[in-house]
Write a structure and sequence with these properties.
Pfam family, one: zf-B_box
Order of helices and strands: EEHEHEHEHEEEHEEEEEHHEEE
CATH topology of the largest domain: Rossmann fold
Oligomer: single chain
Largest sheet: 8 strands, mixed
Organism: Geotrypetes seraphini
Family: Belongs to the peptidase C14A family.
Structural class: alpha/beta
Keywords: Apoptosis, Hydrolase, Metal-binding, Protease, Zinc, Zinc-finger
GO molecular function: cysteine-type endopeptidase activity; zinc ion binding
């Protein structure tokens, strides 16, 4: 296919022997003018190599990809739809996904620590980890299937640079979908989730990305049949664009999709919801599996 993974002006294209003056965002490698003009990369987005060298450093995603989904399904109608959609996404993106249903409050911590041990036991290179947390909740906490609570910050800290050295410099994605409570009104089309307290992102959380269902102090919404708006839109956007766009571009589109929805309720009023993304990523993160054609 030509090109080289080195982003340097002195590098030559292996196919045409010309200087690599451009960086292909789709295939994440340097390409020459002939690669673009000849059609190999003509339809791909690309940047000038000098600009790419300064601004477009990317994470190495050639290693294993691991995911953990912890989801309380009891009393959370639509949760299975979210699990199904996320599992489809992880399969397409090449993630090995562990799914744990109905963890207790203590189980959230236990399963995350077991996941960390699994990560640290890997001999092969791990390029990315994705953790999904879905449950009822109150400010700053999740409620397990047994009614016991767990602090969100404790879960985040378990995977930070200090406590999980195997993932230092590795992108870590946390997706939180926390319910407000268990009461459901049969006249409401969408039930509500809430997360009124957002955990502070500490310096030890470098190379991390946190995706919340709503702005601080606001509810988020979950369809009792189709799943949560955030997760369903995220899966839709990622599946359409993961071959072309990096994750922050994808999440911008997710925010646009979610915030553009008018959410009907029993009293015929319509509400809005806007997800919140916080990150300490130091490079661009492309989720396209290595070797996959565009």
């Amino acid at each position: 296919m030509g090109g080289s993974e080195e982003m340097g002006a002195a590098q030559l294209c292996s196919s045409h022997g010309l200087p690599l003056k451009y960086f292909c965002k789709t295939d994440q490698l340097g390409v020459c003018a002939e690669c673009i003009a000849g059609g190999l990369h003509r339809e791909h987005p690309y940047l000038n190599m000098e600009e790419a060298s300064k601004q477009c450093k990317v994470y190495d995603m050639s290693g294993e990809r691991l995911a953990l989904t912890l989801c309380v399904t009891s009393g959370r109608a639509g949760a299975e739809a979210d699990i199904f959609a996320l599992n489809q996404l992880f399969f397409r993106l090449g993630f090995l996904n562990r799914i744990i249903r109905d963890p207790t409050g203590e189980g959230f911590k236990r399963e995350l620590l077991a996941f960390r041990e699994w990560v640290e036991s890997h001999v092969s290179f791990i390029s990315c980890c994705f953790v999904v947390l879905m449950a009822h909740g109150r400010p700053g906490i999740l409620i397990g299937s047994d009614g016991a609570t767990v602090n969100l910050e404790q879960l985040f800290q378990a995977m930070n640079n200090q406590n999980c050295t195997a993932l230092q410099g590795t992108p870590k994605i946390f997706l939180i979908q926390a319910c407000r409570g268990e009461q459901q009104d049969p006249g409401i089309v969408y039930t509500t989730d809430a997360l009124s307290h957002l955990s502070k992102v500490l310096p030890t959380h470098t190379d991390s990305l946190f995706i919340y269902p709503s702005q601080e102090g606001y509810v988020s919404y979950r369809s009792e049949t189709d799943g949560s708006i955030l997760i369903q839109k995220l899966v839709m956007v990622f599946l359409k664009g993961f071959c072309e766009f990096h994750i922050l571009e994808l999440l911008t589109k997710v925010i646009q999709e979610v915030s553009g929805i008018n959410i009907p309720t029993r009293n015929q009023q319509q509400y809005k919801s806007t997800p919140l993304v916080q990150y300490t990523l130091r490079k661009l993160l492309y989720l396209k599996p290595s070797g996959m054609a565009a």
